Amino acid sequence: MSKFDPIRKNIKKSKKKIHYQYIILIVFSVIITTLYISDKFNKYNNEKQDLENIVTEYKISQNSLSNELLKTIDKNKKYENYFNSLPYGQPLDTLIINSSYGWRTHPVDSTRNLHTGIDFRAKINTKIYSTGNGVIIFSGYKNGYGRCIIIQHVLEHKTIYGHLNKLLVKNGQQVKKGDIIALSGNTGMTSGPHLHYEIRISNNPVNPYNYLYNDRSLK
């Protein structure tokens, strides 16, 4: 037996010990690394889920906002359509009043009576416009009105356009605010070319002046 044998054995044991420690260190490092990666992965998944929740909430909020916006637009359109169905507007491009609404002496037969509308100056064949959305309930010849058009609007409002030269609409026809419905003239009981314009509510005449919305020009 050599005197170096114990030393060799100790060295061999030390190598084995170091080898085992190295393996343990590697295993421990793998475990620590795995735990670290797992923790980061879990945090990533949680953050990803939070982000997905935020995106989902945003989409829900955006859809809700879009729906509310569409409802508001729809309501505004309904209000606009409703307003346009009332006779607020001008039957001529330019309004020059010859005779106002109210009691007067008739220029043709000299009788004292209620002038149920307004007479506007208009040369023959001047364009006449509908002052609101509605339905034509009369288009023809009517006593002192001569050639005449009557439009039914909402809330029992009617507009009457008298002394016309040419009728451009027919009974039952739908018209919109601003549509050209006739050309002015000098038909019926009149002392000269003009447009007689009336507004009636439940067949009772009212002063059209209060409805003359200045969408063109008012003189």
Which parts are unreliable, with pLDDT below 50 for 5 consecutive residues or more? Answer: none
CATH-assigned fold name of the largest domain? Glucose Permease (Domain IIA)
- Which H/E pattern describes the elements? HEEEEEEEEEEEEEE
Number of helices: 1
Would you write up a description of this structure?
With 219 residues, this protein is an alpha+beta fold. The protein folds into two domains: 1-84; 94-218, Glucose Permease (Domain IIA) (Distorted Sandwich), CATH 2.70.70.10. The relative contact order is 0.14. The mean pLDDT is 83. It has one helix spanning 5-84, and strands at 94-95, 97-99, 102-105, 112-115, 118-121, 127-129, 134-142, 146-152, 157-167, 174-175, 180-184, 194-201, 204-206, 217-218.
Topology readout:
Elements: H1 5-84, E1 94-95, E2 97-99, E3 102-105, E4 112-115, E5 118-121, E6 127-129, E7 134-142, E8 146-152, E9 157-167, E10 174-175, E11 180-184, E12 194-201, E13 204-206, E14 217-218
Give a quick set of tags describing it.
ten-stranded antiparallel sheet; 219 residues; 37% helix; alpha+beta; 2 domains; Glucose Permease (Domain IIA)
Task: Compose a concise summary of this entry.
The chain is α+β, with helices and mostly antiparallel strands and 219 residues long. The protein has one helix at 5-84; strands at 94-95, 97-99, 102-105, 112-115, 118-121, 127-129, 134-142, 146-152, 157-167, 174-175, 180-184, 194-201, 204-206, 217-218.
